[in-house]
């Protein structure tokens, strides 16, 4: 009897806790887990030392180098001399195992206020074998550094593939926790990065050495799997007060993307196909009004999406369209007004944004009825609409965004003010498993998770909680 009473009491407590978490007043969840808002200054530069040796190559990172995944762009910096500006590479398996080829690099460099960059090398390699491990080596003699990556499988409708998702990373102790947590997750094969990289611009004169330290920081992941880049506001580096008038100068010198292969005229917006996903990257900080290059490109691009080839349509941008945090509230609104109807018509599966330093996942909602005079200004449930994820919770110098609007709006399914990363594990043309991992948990724990159903092949409402 004693045992039964205590069991019943435990069950009631668990039930009460569960009900407290899901809430009674609305469908969404505001997690009770709120991270402390203590300061998070950048780690000292000495925490990101260059590799040993004279002119040793550093800041090695890779991204997709073509439209369909057989290409890779390998980038690195040499601090003092232009050489070596080539990269030997060879397959670790398959019929061309150990057959060594060499790719030349294009060199760029730039000046920013009182800073001069090292030599920034970008080597584009194309026509690799699909689904194959490759080695590559940068540097010569005692400075030679060996890395590896795996190409994706051939693009196709039922190709399983797992993406990592991160945003607003910076270079604090929290950033390091997020990145280490991500690296310890063995499943993610390619990073979808939602913008705001180094936060160099939070330092006096946009201290561009912070771009170098950030490049060294992320190398432990970005040299081994592609990071797909999106530009955020911290990539602008537009600073008339120090006579720096060229937007995105450090970012565009350092992080090259294959924009021409999707007929884009700017590295700030482009698309790739990888495994079973068609990924569109947009720029929240470039013109997107009617007739602008980005508007014209996106309109064309959406007509090229072939769901028979790539069932999953994913969009990356920086400033979220649906955000119920008081930080950056409605900053993405004008872009939403410009493009939301296209996303609904195209049945975009998921939109990934950063900018707000917290985590939030939306319901499938749209707000395209509103025409100023009809009064229909509230978002409605819409099974043709994307799920919007805000994942600006990398853990940068600016700290946590811990002020959510109250009450939680109906479009918001789950939100939490702490740091972490997410993964999107595409299983086939209908199902993908999405998980968000807060830094304080082990990778086996998902603080938020959802089976996503493909909008083209299986447009069924997901069970949100
Ligand atoms: Fe931002």
Automatic annotation (TrEMBL):
**GO annotation, biological process:** cellular response to phosphate starvation
Q: Which residues form the Purple acid phosphatase N-terminal domain?
A: 57-151
Enzyme Commission numbers on file: 3.1.3.2
The answer on whether this UniProt entry bears the keyword Glycoprotein reads yes
The Calcineurin-like phosphoesterase domain, residue ranges: 162-359
Q: Which cofactors does it use?
A: Fe cation; Zn(2+)
Name the UniProt record assigns to this protein:
Purple acid phosphatase
Q: Which species is the source of this protein?
A: Juglans regia
């Amino acid at each position: 009897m004693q045992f039964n009473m205590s069991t019943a009491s435990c069950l009631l407590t668990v039930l009460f806790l569960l009900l407290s978490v899901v809430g009674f007043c609305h469908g969404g969840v505001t997690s009770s887990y709120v991270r402390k808002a203590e300061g998070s200054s950048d780690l000292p530069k000495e925490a990101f030392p260059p590799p040993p040796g004279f002119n040793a190559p550093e800041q090695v990172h890779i991204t997709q180098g073509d439209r369909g995944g057989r290409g890779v762009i390998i980038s690195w910096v040499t601090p003092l001399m232009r050489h070596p500006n080539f990269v030997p590479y060879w397959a670790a398996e398959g019929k061309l195992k150990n057959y060594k080829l060499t790719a030349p690099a294009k060199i760029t460099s730039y000046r920013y206020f009182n800073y001069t960059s090292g030599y920034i090398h970008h080597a584009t390699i194309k026509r690799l074998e699909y689904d194959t491990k490759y080695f590559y080596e940068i540097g010569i003699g005692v400075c030679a550094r060996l890395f590896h990556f795996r190409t994706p499988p051939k693009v196709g409708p039922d190709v399983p593939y797992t993406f990592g998702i991160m945003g607003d990373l910076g270079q604090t102790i929290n950033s390091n926790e997020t990145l280490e947590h991500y690296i310890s997750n063995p499943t993610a094969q390619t990073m979808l990065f939602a913008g705001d990289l180094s936060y160099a611009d939070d330092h006096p004169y946009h201290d561009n050495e912070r771009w170098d330290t950030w490049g060294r920081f992320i190398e432990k992941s970005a040299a081994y799997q592609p990071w797909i880049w999106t530009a955020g506001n911290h990539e602008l580096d537009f600073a008339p007060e120090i006579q720096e008038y060229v937007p995105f100068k450090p970012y565009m010198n350092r992080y090259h993307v294959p924009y021409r292969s999707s007929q884009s005229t700017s590295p700030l917006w482009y698309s790739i196909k990888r495994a079973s996903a068609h990924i569109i990257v947009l720029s929240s900080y470039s013109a997107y009004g009617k007739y602008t290059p980005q508007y014209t490109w996106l309109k064309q691009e959406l007509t090229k999406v072939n769901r028979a080839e790539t069932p999953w349509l994913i969009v990356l941008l920086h400033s979220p369209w649906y955000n119920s945090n008081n930080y950056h509230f409605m900053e993405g609104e004008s872009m939403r007004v410009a493009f939301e109807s296209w996303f609904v018509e195209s049945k975009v599966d998921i939109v990934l944004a950063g900018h707000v330093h917290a985590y939030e996942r939306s319901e499938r909602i749209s707000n395209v009825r509103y025409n100023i005079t009809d009064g229909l200004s509230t978002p409605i449930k819409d099974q043709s609409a994307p799920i919007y994820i805000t994942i600006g919770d990398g853990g940068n110098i600016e700290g946590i965004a811990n002020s959510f609007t109250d009450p939680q709006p109906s479009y918001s399914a789950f939100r939490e003010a702490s740091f972490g990363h997410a993964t999107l594990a595409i299983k086939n043309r209908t199902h993908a498993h999405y998980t968000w991992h807060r830094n304080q948990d082990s990778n086996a724990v998902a603080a938020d998770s959802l089976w996503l159903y493909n909008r083209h092949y299986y447009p069924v409402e997901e069970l949100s909680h």
